[in-house]
Amino acid sequence: MPHATQHADDATAELDSALRGGPFHVALRAAIAARGLPLQRVQHHLSRHGVKVGVTSLSYWQQGARRPQRPESLRAVRALEEILQLPDESLIRLLAETGERAGRDTSARSYRVFVEAAGVLERLLAELDSPVDGGLQTLGHHELVRIGARRELAGRESHHIVRAHRDGVDRFVAVHHGDPGCVPDGMAVHALENCSAGRVRRHEETGLLVVELLFGTRLRAGDTFLFRYGVQDGTAGESREYVRGFDSAGGQYALQVRFDERALPVRCHRFTQHTAAAPRSGHQDLTPTGPHHSVHLVEPRMRSGIVGIGWDWE
Fold first, then answer.
1. Half-sphere exposure of 216 toward its Cβ, with a 13 Å CA cutoff?
2. C-alpha neighbours within 13 Å on the C-beta side of residue 190
3. Please, is 120 exposed, middle or buried when counting C-beta atoms within 10 Å of its C-beta (0-12, 13-18, 19+)?
4. Domains of the chain with CATH codes
5. Residues of 75-102 as b/e, b for ≥16 C-beta within 10 angstroms?
6. pLDDT of residue 161
7. What is the reported pLDDT for 42?
C-alpha cells in the first residue's frame, strides 16, 4: 500500500510541475496518468460533454505528435480541464505558449491570439444558440477588404452562396476579427442583400464581432441561398494582412484587397497555412493593377486551413 501511495504522490508532483512549466503535451499526459484514466475512458467523458475526439487524436496530443488546432479540438481541451480536474485555462494557456514557441512568421498573429479568440468565439456562439455546423454548406464566398488612407482596415464586404443540408435553416452567423487594438463597439454591421441583422455580440479584448444574419425564410435541405453583408471597421491602427480560416473543404473562395490611393503598399503577397500553428507556405507575389489599386486571390475549391494576403508598407 505504501508503494501505491508513493506512486500517486509522484504522479501528482509530476502533474504540478508540468502544469507550471509545460509543454502542453507533457501536462496532458501527466494529467491523464494522475487520474488513472485510459484514453478510451477519456474519449467517453468527452462524448458526454458533447465533444467528439478520436482515441488516436488524444494519443497524438499527449505524445506531442499533433496539437489541437480547430475550434472543436479547443473545445475538447477546455472539457479535458474539467474531466481531469485541472484549473481553468491551465491546458489552454500551455497550448498557446507551446504554439508561440513553434517558430512562425513574425508578421502573423500569435498562436495565443488564435487560441484566446477561439475560446471567446465558442462562448459568443453559445450565447446565440449557434451550433458549430449551422446547417449550411458554402458553395462560393467572395470577400472585398478595404484598406483606408490611414493604412487601417476600413471594412469589408462578404458575398455568400450557400446550400442547406438540413431543413429549417434560417440564418447565418458571421464573424469579424479586427486587427490588434480595434474597438468592436465602434464597428457597424450592414445587411446588404437578402438578409437582415439580428443579435450582435462583441468582445473588446480579442476584437471579435459576431452577428446573426437572418434570411427571412426557412430553407429546406438542398435549397441554395445568396446573401451579402458588410462590416464597417476602421477602429485599429496600421493593417498588414487579412486571413481567412476554413475548418473543412468547401466551394470557391475569392479574396480581394483594395487600397486607398493615398496609402499604397510597396509589395503584396498571398500565403497559406495548414493550421494556425504551422509555418506559412505557398508565398506568391501579387501586383496591384489598374485604377482600383487592388490585389486578389482565387481558390477554386477551398481545403481545410488558412489562406490570406499580406502587404508591406514603405
1. 8
2. 10
3. middle
4. 2-101 (1.10.260), 116-312 (2.60.40)
5. bbbbbbbebbebeeebbbbbbbbbbeee
6. 97
7. 93
User: What distance in Å separates the CA atoms of residue 32 and residue 55, rounded to the nearest whole number?
Assistant: 13
What is 267-290 written as a DSSP string? Answer: EEEEEEESSTTSPPEEEEEE--BT
Which residues lie closer than 8 Å to 148 by C-beta, 6 or more apart? 154, 234, 260, 263
Q: What is the pLDDT of residues 115-166, one digit of tens each?
A: 667 778 888 888 888 766 688 999 999 999 999 999 999 999 999 999 999 9
What is d(CA 110, CA 98) in angstroms, rounded to the nearest whole number? 11
- What's the CA gap between 18 and 65, in Å, rounded? 17
User: Confidence class of residue 229 from pLDDT cuts 50, 70 and 90?
Assistant: very high
Q: Tell me the whole-structure pTM to 2 decimals.
A: 0.69
Q: How far apart are CA 30 and CA 26, in angstroms?
A: 6
Residues whose CB is less than 8 angstroms from the CB of residue 208 and which lie 6 or more positions away in sequence, other chains included: 117, 120, 121, 124, 175, 176, 177, 178, 184, 201, 202
